[in-house]
Design brief:
By secondary structure, the protein is mainly alpha-helical. About 30% of the residues lie in helices and about 5% in strands. It has 14 helices and six strands. The radius of gyration is 24 Å and the shape is globular.
Length: about 475
């Protein structure tokens, strides 16, 4: 637990005062300086290595101790720590060829092989990675148990009309485009079987996609049977959809959407329990999966690639895509086309983006790899849906509402346009390098005169390993 908590702090700030024994507020000097980042990593790894032999190798889901830390999770967590230690975040002047990568490979390979021997494996259905509690892919879960500890994912993911307030997060058009097609290729890859351009994709974005798309995203006109409503379709079209679900500016609707600065025309289905009633979205107890075997696999693939073992990384990506349901293709490559380490690095990053969608990995991946500059000058877009007749003319809203009330409007009965979100035109400014480490709060510095602030934030402390 100490290693876990200190790792979170090092990930944020670099080296911190690593306290390994209780301090007495009256007898001890509490003005403790920061350990170097290297020392902090060494202390974290020492703690983990001391813990592993004291822990049971694997706690089975049937055990009353399930949810406590076992050696399998500790080893997988150690592998994640050394992955960070080798990463560009901590080694900016030598991001890909520093000496930490080989150690990271050895530990990640060991974690992958050990957990596999202990029975961890990808489950067959991607939809169940979080909803099938105690499945073979779950390396560690935070246990929820109603009424003492509840889950609220559905409250934030569902459309407002089926929740207890507006959705707190929605997929953007930019993210929708990132999903590969069924053959594993990008939509605009000229070598792909389902190759298309962005304009045409916008009008048919739900067709021929990576099966994880259907299991993760809710779109206008999709069958979305929440709350036990058989045959229910989700609509987002202004003037047709519920006011807590709509998105758009169609002047013929005669009403302004209140969601233009927070919605996108899409919602999240992944890890959502569709059978929950509207009143239950804040009081159910599905466990929170903190780490699953797919992460162990992709961490291993990353270290294999960066140490020149491209074929090992390739086999891992193929396993992930095979489980996803992507077509193998005549060359059995599942749409992966790489010739070198740089290509594979991009392929792994893209795979993490899709495989771990809405699981809280993307920001930390870009930060760990010092790729936050990919956000420079970017903004977000959503998709408005307007009902049309067979000849392409706009359908009368009264007719459209009548058909929607009977769930008769499908995706093909709409035309689609893009809107920036928010409409004010906010873009990401250039992300400065100092954001790869956050500052120590002034309120914390004020309590300890021996704490140094990070470089770039008014201090002299180097948070890297250099």
């Amino acid at each position: 637990m100490r290693a876990y908590l200190y790792f979170q702090m090092v990930k944020y700030h670099g080296g911190i005062p690593y306290i390994k024994k209780p301090q007495d507020r009256y007898e001890d000097d509490l003005q403790t300086p920061r350990n170097s980042t290297k020392e902090s990593f060494e202390f974290i790894l020492n703690d983990i290595e001391e813990a592993i032999p004291k822990l049971p190798e694997k706690i089975e889901p049937s055990s009353s101790n399930y949810g406590k830390i076992d050696a399998s999770f500790a080893l997988a967590f150690k592998a994640k720590v050394v992955l960070y230690m080798a990463s560009p975040q901590f080694n900016p002047s030598n991001p890909w060829d520093n000496s930490y990568w080989e150690t990271a490979y050895e530990v990640n390979q060991l974690a992958y092989q050990t957990l596999k021997e202990n029975g961890y494996a990808l489950i067959d259905d991607y939809s169940g990675v979080a909803l099938q509690e105690g499945n073979s892919e779950t390396v560690f879960s935070v246990i929820n148990k109603y009424p003492d500890k509840v889950a609220q994912w559905d409250h934030g993911a569902r459309p407002g009309s089926e929740s207890r307030g507006a959705a707190s997060a929605t997929p953007t058009w930019e993210f929708v485009k990132e999903y590969p097609m069924k053959d594993g290729k990008k939509f605009d890859d000229p070598n792909g079987e389902y190759h298309t351009n962005e304009d045409d994709l916008l009008q048919n974005y739900w067709e021929n996609r990576d099966p994880r798309f259907d299991k993760s995203i809710v779109w206008n006109g999709k069958i979305y049977e929440v709350s036990g409503k058989t045959g229910r379709r989700q609509y987002t079209s202004l003037g047709i959809a519920h006011e807590l679900d709509d998105f758009g500016t169609n002047p013929k609707a005669g009403v302004n959407s209140t969601n233009l600065n927070r919605y996108s025309g899409f919602f999240i289905e992944k890890n959502s329990l569709l059978n929950l009633t509207q009143s239950e979205v804040q009081q159910y107890d599905v466990d929170f999966v903190l780490m699953r075997f797919a992460e162990v696999m992709l961490n291993y693939a990353e270290t294999a690639n960066e140490t020149g073992r491209l074929s090992e990384a390739m086999e891992i990506l193929k396993e992930i895509r095979k489980r996803a349901g992507i077509e193998a293709g005549s060359d059995n490559s599942y749409g992966i086309s790489v010739d070198n380490r740089e290509d594979m690095r991009e392929a792994i990053l893209a795979e993490r983006n899709i495989e771990f969608a809405f699981e809280g990995h993307r920001f930390w991946d870009l930060r760990r790899l010092r790729m936050l500059d990919r956000l420079d000058g970017t903004t977000k877009h959503g998709v408005e849906s307007i009902a049309v007749n067979a000849d392409g003319s706009e359908m009368a809203l009264s007719k459209a509402r009548e058909k929607a009330n009977e769930n008769l409007l499908t995706e093909e009965d709409f035309k689609y346009t893009l809107h920036q979100v928010p409409l004010s035109g906010v873009k990401v400014n250039d992300v400065p390098d100092k954001y790869y480490f956050f500052p120590i709060k002034k309120s914390v510095l004020d309590k300890n005169e021996n704490l140094e602030q990070n470089e770039g934030w008014g201090g002299t402390f180097d948070p890297t390993l250099e």
